[in-house]
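Chain A, query sequence.
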Amino acid sequence: MAMICANCGKGVVFGQSQKHRRGVAGKRWKKRTQATKRLFKPNLQLANVVVSGGVVKMKLCTKCIKRFKKDKKIYTPSRVSAVLG
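Chain A, predicted structure.
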């Protein structure tokens, strides 16, 4: 399964994580902290969304879920059965 939001296309991003090392004033190269590669993953959730009159289960990031809740396009499981009849 792809780690991509179905609405906005947000996906995984590569970056670096750094430890905090104390006592490194003066930016000495010898005592520089390690920067290890890591993967930042989006917070994806399955949500029931109203699409053209029907309810579809989509994988959305939490930012899109908040946006859809504001527009009243997200349905909880109990409301899905009521909409579908």
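The first helix runs from residue 62 to 70. The first strand starts at residue 13 and ends at 18.
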